[in-house]
Write a structure and sequence with these properties.
The structure is a single chain. Strand 3 (66-71) and strand 4 form a beta hairpin. The chain is an alpha+beta fold and 198 residues long. Helix 3 runs antiparallel to helix 4 (143-165). It starts with 10 loop residues before the first helix and ends with a helix. It has helices at residues 11-18, 29-43, 105-125, 143-165, 173-176, 187-197; strands spanning 51-53, 59-62, 66-71, 74-79, 87-89, 132-134, 139-141, 171-172, 183-184. The protein has 6 helices and 9 strands. The protein has a 3-stranded antiparallel beta sheet, with no helix packed on it. The protein has a two-stranded antiparallel sheet with strand order 1-5. A two-stranded antiparallel sheet has the order 6-7.
Length: 198
């Protein structure tokens, strides 16, 4: 499980999107952070590896200010503050000069959708959801929970596929959301929209 990552800024948006905002939480912080990091891996080919995950195995040198790291495209220089499981921008794919956030704003929605899909898939495959049992005097069935979870996973996957099929630079309201006069500019806005329709 991932316990620290610079993707923690998306934790609240992911919680809101999946409907896990009341304490006690269903998903631990470590599980959400793991889903966010794995979401970047899940999207790597669709994003053409423009975001990479730091691990000590890619470190070439560290002068205290900058780290030189090996990427699939060559070497990149990143700040020394980047730690294990942090995401950084691939210097061969995307300009780091304007990087005030980890991801470009137009990529935040895809990360939320992929992370939610992975969380739900893990819940479905690692528990007894979808099973039923009975004894002569008791019975239990959570098959409907399984159906709901599968439906939510399909919704996440369909929305994710739509994002990439349309090759949107940003999510345009007229193509994806009901309001025609507004562009969703952050992952939190997307999470609020989806939590209102789910």
């Amino acid at each position: 499980m991932v316990t620290t990552t610079n993707l923690n800024i998306y934790e609240d948006a992911l919680r809101l999107y999946i409907g896990d905002f009341d304490t006690p939480y269903v998903y631990s912080t470590a599980r959400l952070l793991t889903a966010l990091v794995e979401g970047v891996r899940f999207l790597a080919s669709r994003w053409d590896r423009k975001y990479l995950i730091y691990g000590s195995g890619i470190l070439i040198s560290d002068d205290g200010t900058y780290k030189t790291v090996s990427t699939p495209d060559g070497t990149c220089t990143i700040p020394s503050s980047v730690q294990e499981n942090d995401v950084f921008r691939n210097c061969y794919k995307i300009d780091n000069a304007d990087s005030t956030t980890v991801l470009q704003i137009q990529d935040e929605a895809a990360l939320l959708l992929a992370s939610a899909y992975l969380l739900r898939r893990a819940a479905l495959t690692s528990s007894n959801i979808g099973q039923s049992w009975s004894t002569p005097d008791l019975s239990h069935s959570n098959i409907e929970t399984s159906r709901t979870l599968r439906s939510l996973m399909q919704t996440d996957l369909d929305a994710l596929n739509l994002l990439f099929k349309e090759k949107l630079g940003s999510i345009q309201a007229g193509m994806f959301f009901p309001r025609n006069d507004f562009q969703y500019n952050s992952a939190l806005e997307v999470a609020r929209y989806y939590s209102s329709i789910v």
